[in-house]
Amino acid sequence: MSTADERGTRTARWRRTLVLTAVFVCAACGLVYELALVALGSYLLGNTITQASVVLALMVFAMGIGSLVAKPLTRHAAVGFAVVEIVLAAVGGTSVLVLYAAFAWWSLYQPVLVVLALVIGLLIGAEIPLLMTLLQRIRRQEASSAVADLFAADYVGALLGGLAFPFVLLPWLGLLEGTAVVGAVNAAAGAAVALGLFRADVRRALRVALAAGLAVVMVALGLVATQASAFETTARQRIFRDPVVVAERSPYQEIVVTRSLRGDDTRLFLNGDLQFSSLDEYRYHEALVHPAMAGPHARVLVLGGGDGLASRELLRYKDVRSITLVDLDPAVVRLASTDATLRRLNHDAFADPRLHAVHADAFTWLRANQQQFDVVVADMPDADDVATAKLYSVELYGLVRRALAPGGRVVVQAGSPYFARQAYWTTAASLRTAGLSPTPYHVDVPSFGDWGYFLAAPGQAPPVRMPVGAPSTRFVDSGVLAAAGVFPRDRAPLRLAPSTLLEPRILQRQGDWRGY
Questions:
Q1: Element of type H or E holding 506
Q2: Contact present, 54 and 218 (Cβ < 8 Å)
């Protein structure tokens, strides 16, 4: 082989490597766009399984259409690829902003999600035939070999994007800024192919147009990244009725605290779901805690309850020796133990030496637990996702039963028997299947509506009553609890199948009810 041939081969290899690098980068960016839409949906609506299924199904479908639509562009593959990537960067890089705005201002979340997923999928699908054409123009090779090279780079790039999203982009940049930065990388990679590697194949006028388009998109994405915090603050305030005084996105959820202008109503929201209102939270927590204390209660386990309000009621019993609180998110406990308003509401519960907080998944912690407790208080988020549905499963209640000392009782907040009737009675079925006999009761909590609980124990179902010598309460007393056990005929008990890890029926039964 002559020196010229060797030099040409090296140049071809170098150019192919750079094209495959562009494939790698663009694949990583494409997966980040998909994950960003799923993540935003889980923050705003919950039910990650549904959000992921909708986004991925629409995108994969659109990718197939995009591959077909891109066929005519293969005659001008370099320019076509650059245009596709610049447009994809603009759409993908601003997708979270557009979708958040659609939710906050226009109540058009689902239609806009569908459009974005289809457009992004269409553009991602258009990449493959264009890139294949560019690779073959550099050096002809067998179709199987070219496909192997292309998809190897594509799949490895997707791996990088999938790992970078939760471990780098979200913690370091955040959802809005992260997608904007990824969009800028995407646009630069696409433009580099046409303006660099295949510059000789692109007419001057087109190069100028591509450079101008790239500049416009880069400036737009830069504005999105720099103004993301201000936009998010404005959009978040649009969602909530009262002024937002605390907003934090932990690795597990979005935490928001609002306070009314008069200062008399403080509310905690997790992923948009109301956890309590200071105006009436005492009704919820008194009804949750005090009936479970009618018996031995020296050792108490609280599952969830990171706001400290259930623990406040428990700590009012002087003969409670220890409380173990298991909550997944340390950010919630940190907020409840440092924010002046929340500390006042929970009576500075986390400063009491009897209360010990553990940051772990309740299911995992119960599996490893060897202790036994007189009372277990399950104050956990509603089951609107598989991750939370397991907290209402037969398997979890079986672990709770194992953790109960002789004579022990468990109380479960179970949603509304009025507005989530099937979810409520599915919880009863799960408790029974786990060997616990539940007693249903419900009270009125104005911020939530009618709210239901189950007090359960092995053997005979325990009565719902106030403990002897209970501390004074603002709402719950013997009369309230007597009425709490009465259900109207149109809300009579339902006999339903239990919810398990493999069949989370509580999700299916809850439907589109979102709580408060």
A1: helix 505-510
A2: no
- The answer on whether 339 is annotated among ligand-binding residues is no
Q: How far is CA 305 from CA 340, 372, 387, 483, in A?
A: 18, 19, 17, 26
Residue 442 annotated as binding site: no
pTM comes to 0.84
For residue range 454-492, list pLDDT tens digits in order: 999 999 999 999 999 999 999 999 999 999 999 998 888
> Could you confirm whether 5 is annotated as catalytic?
no
Does residue 12 have a known ligand-binding role? no
Burial 279-296 (b: 16+ CB within 10 A, else e): ebbbbbbbbbbbbbbbee
Q: Is 307 annotated as a binding residue?
A: yes
Among the options 374, 379, 382, 385, which is catalytic?
Answer: 379
Beta strand pairing call for 266-270 and 273-277: antiparallel
Place of tokens 């089951």: 383
What are the tens digits of pLDDT across the range 154-209? 999 999 999 999 999 988 998 999 999 999 999 999 999 888 888 888 889 999 99
- List, in order of start, the domains of the chain with CATH numbers: 3-239 (1.20.1250.20), 277-510 (3.40.50.150)
Within 10 A of 435 (CB to CB), how many other CB atoms are there?
16
Among residues 324, 323, 349, the alpha carbon closest in space to that of 335 is found at: 349
pLDDT band at 9 (very low <50, low <70, confident <90, very high): low
Give residue 135's identity as a one-letter amino acid code. L
